[in-house]
Amino acid sequence: MINDTLLTAVEDELRRGPWRLRFADEVEARFEEDTQHQRSRSMVVAGLISAIIYCLFLINDHSFRPDTFTTALTLRVGVMLPFGLPILWWVYRGVSPAQRETLMASTVIVATVISCLIFAESTVPYSYLDVFSFGLILLVGNIVYSLRFNYACVSSAICIFIILLFVLSYDPMPPEAKRLAIFTIIAQALFTLVANYRFEQSERTSYLHVLKEKIRAGYYLKDNQELSRMSVTDPLTNLANRRQFDTVFPVRWQEATDKGLCLGLVVIDIDHFKAYNDYYGHPQGDECLRQVATAMQANSRDADLVVRFGGEEFVVLIANASPEAAKPAAERIRHNVEALEIPNHGVSAQSVVTVSVGVAVLYPKVSLAPAELLSQADEALYEAKRQGRNRVWVASAIDSSSGDSAIDGLSVSA
Ligand SMILES: Nc1nc2c(ncn2[C@@H]2O[C@H](COP(=O)(O)OP(=O)(O)OP(=O)(O)O)[C@@H](O)[C@H]2O)c(=O)[nH]1
């Protein structure tokens, strides 16, 4: 259900076109949740690289304008690093998206202020040429950090304003150079903002497509799991169906053979069910099958496989079943069905729905086929019916090595 709403929201966003840089709240929250870890880390890496390069500009300060080297050293290493590094640590540890963008944008603005202070302090000829390198700071914020577009716009505007203040008030710089510098800085800001916008746009569009495919893949997986479940389940009773039995039985047989364990099979058939159907009708017959199935399931262990074998016939496959344990288990099932007291007036006014049960238990051997156990249990069931129904008949004392399936039965009547 949650995914349905999300899928609709994602499809709405894709329909709306890629020009918007903010999704509807639900999708935006998901976008941030999915991307913020990676984004914070890549911003921190970008911040560290930028900090190193920013400090390397001291080489330029030293050779180009030695009169302000001490100031440059103090500001770049003594102010910029103590300001920037804790911010990077903070972002690395995880902050809200707005804090992350604001903090990273603040490093861009502070770097601009520091660069302007160093520039303004120097009086050496051509020091003003340094202004042309300020565009690199914009490049860091808008491209290297890739600040979200609105933060990039605001920080670029603030940086340009600061640069304007310093450039316009710096007397040694010729007016033509000021004009060119300001024009260049503004153009760099615009170019990098265009690139920033396109980065964010394509990041968001790709994210929507990936998210849509992920949600759909989730549906396919769920559908497949549901189909697999349905293919091995009886729709009327929700018990395992014959197909599941055919898959599980040989596996349990092999396990029992390998471990030398006993395997038990209980075959259950509702008595006079035709009469029930004829009297109450087919839908009521279905309801009766459901109740009997529930009673059988409730009286079996989790490890046992309870199967609707077909029609009104059921099977319980009992792993690691000793002959002594299988008989009471079968008797419990018979008793509990009878205890449901589902009337069967199709037989007589006093009759209730009962079951006949055939039980077979043996130690599987390589020389035996699994069908052997099934046929012994079937024969026991036939005997239970023949003996008058509503009883358990155990096919016992079977010499599995000879394959002798003679029934040395024991009847347990109600
Ligand atoms: N309602 C309903 N009836 C079913 C379903 N599958 C099989 N049956 C009915 O089960 C009845 C089985 O009848 P029989 O095989 O003659 O057996 P019986 O009447 O139970 O007699 P005994 O087994 O000898 O006690 C038939 O009437 C089938 O139509 C089902 O899915 N729903």
Automatic annotation (TrEMBL):
GO MF annotation terms: diguanylate cyclase activity
Transmembrane segment boundaries: 43-60, 72-91, 103-120, 126-144, 151-168, 180-199
Reactions this protein catalyses: 2 GTP = 3',3'-c-di-GMP + 2 diphosphate
Enzyme Commission number(s) from the entry: 2.7.7.65
Xref: InterPro entries: Diguanylate_Cyclase, GGDEF_dom, Nucleotide_cyclase, Rev_trsase/Diguanyl_cyclase
Source superkingdom: Bacteria
Alphabetically ordered keywords of this record: Membrane, Transmembrane, Transmembrane helix
GO biological process: cell adhesion involved in single-species biofilm formation; negative regulation of bacterial-type flagellum-dependent cell motility
Name this polypeptide is given: diguanylate cyclase
Cofactor names: Mg(2+)
Organism from which the protein derives: Vreelandella sedimenti
One of the Pfam families matching this protein, by short name: GGDEF
Domain GGDEF: 261-397
Top-level EC class as recorded in UniProt: transferase
A Gene Ontology term for the protein's cellular component: plasma membrane
Gene3D superfamilies: 3.30.70.270
